[in-house]
Amino acid sequence: MVERGTENPCVGGSTPPLGTNKEKNSKQKVFIAVDIGGTKTEVAIGEERVEKFKVIPTPAEFENFLSSLFLLIERVGKGKKIKAIGISAPGPLDPVKGLIFPSPNLKWKEAKIKEVLEKRFTLPVFLENDANLAGLGECFQGAGKGADSVFYITVSTGIGGAFILQGKIYQGASFDAGEIGHTVVLDNGPRCNCGRKGCLEALSSGTAIAKRAKRGLKRYPHSLIWQLVENRKELVDAQVVVKAVRAGDEFACKIWEESCRFLALGVANMISLLNPQKVIIGGGISKAGEILFRPLRKMVKEIGWKRAVRYCRIEKAKLRNPAIVGALVYAKSKLSSS
Ligand SMILES: [Zn+2]
Questions:
Q1: Are residues 211 and 311 in the same domain?
Q2: Fewest beta carbons less than 10 Å away: which of 15, 107, 193, 316?
């Protein structure tokens, strides 16, 4: 089911940014966007473009989180006529009931975020998962602008994804569509957070890259990685591997190429299935830039089904925080369709 709205934010350009005299008055009608992350939470205000934002740490207790969030929303929204609140959170979650379920990122016990915020602010609150909203944000204001079908992939500590079709998030029967991180790309491969083996997330995420580097490092005593972490193997992370790849380190390049190949497998399969116009890759690992995108495009071309690959562009995400933009866009479109 494609989630319905009244407008298509991707196709047909964008809405003008805020800034007319009328909009600048103190009673401007705007939306609040909240992006809840495992370690920090960002709250922003705007119509479709972020006007201002603030960041707070995400406390481990839901009750403590709520009291900081209430204060921040009040501060950010002061003097403004807020129409609705859009919330981005790591999954699993139920966007209809507005529940966030416990996960490795957020250990809160079934957080009733929608109900609590609606009660506190007497405003409509719309919840969606962070990858879906990041995809929507990129589609609306970032690298996906103008495309009819976009698959967004975030590669950071985990791997998430979203399929945005004609400006709407494709949610799926249980709101789990787009989870490319949990497609199996290696039979009987390493164990994934989801409990299965060989998921893309267990092979190409930042966490997986660091794990493989740590495990294999002993066999490469002259690897630059040892120098970069001053011989403290526990400090190896994906960014260290990226640095060593840039310097041409043999071991780092081997790890990196493996991880690019698994990502290419996942992307190529998805392109055959969905035939999107664009694949946009964001998240911390995408910041590696051309050392990721050059081999990835080449491998997808080699592995993928030529008919579909020929019509698909693989691009780097553009926005600083696409999920916050997506949360604004989502709140606006849900409000106008409800
Ligand atoms: Zn998995």
A1: yes
A2: 107
